[in-house]
Design brief:
A hairpin with a 2-residue loop joins β8 and β9. This protein is of the alpha/beta class. It has a single domain, classed as TIM Barrel (Alpha-Beta Barrel). It is built from 13 helices and ten strands. The structure holds zinc ion. The site of zinc ion (ZN) has 5 residues, from loops. The site of zinc ion has 5 residues, from loops.
Amino acid sequence: MNSPLLSIIEKKGWCVADGAMGSNLFGRGLEAGYPPELWCLERPDEVLWLHAAFLTAGSDVILTNTFGANALRLKLHRSEHRVYEINVAAAKLAKRASEQHALETGKQSYVAGSIGPSGELFEPMGILNHEQAVDCFSVQAEALAEGGVDLLWIETMSANEEVAAAAEAAKKTGLPVCATMTFDTAKRSMMGVTPSDFVRLSETLNLAVMGANCGVGPAELMHSTLELLAAKPAIPVVVKGNCGIPEYVDGAIHYHGSPQLMAQYALHARDAGATVIGGCCGTTPEHIAAMVAALDESSRDVFDGAAMNEALGIPWKHLPVISEEGQGKAGRRSRRRHG
Ligand SMILES: [Zn+2]
């Protein structure tokens, strides 16, 4: 099925997604370790505020606050019985922000239902099998669809099996499906998937949009994206890079990328051929506004790899920061930091 994003891409050549959810909610009082998804029920005004801020900054598509809102992740917070409730509420909040923005500005935007990893490994290394994973993601996907999202957006994935299960669940809703992987481990995903492997998988799964998100910094994200584009996917490619390299400061992870850095990243991503451009962890509405301004004030240019390295830095010089909970238990991979 055609993605609604295609109509925007056909009109202006690219489309802007939003920035981070979790790291922006930390700035509004969310405590480390607390699931941001519960704020859809407990602090809906804050979630609505962030959606509105990204729309005001110029995002054409915003993602729901549901990255970890599947039963396997919510179980860690004894909230696995609230999957349906959280996802419906999250979708309605994002739709409300989008509709309000259209009323105020006349500009149409779209809502994508975020679906993140389950946090479990597949058999034989872990406990999860295909049916269980499809069941887990189906509850979330159906609730997001019922809440009114325009497409489903599977993100920060590292295993082909998990993308396949999430895509199968998402496609049952009849909505277009986007999926992005995180290539943060020696130029591959944590489970060893290369960008070109992922292009072939996206074709097998008949995805509407595909790409890369999160991981290390914008330079590494762009390196993976160039490999995605070299494999010639027939569908729009998304880039959602972190706001600079994650750094530990006083026991917490911080992102120090400037709006100017993210604007440079957006321009190089467009030149390279990515058509859905957003930010991941650490990206604020201010960063998105700078990216939108840079994109709007110029037109697509010939891609210049040397200029990109100069602006973003040489990729893969930094060790990735991927552990959120320290050492993972046996059979469970440590949960990916993303927010
Ligand atoms: Zn992220």
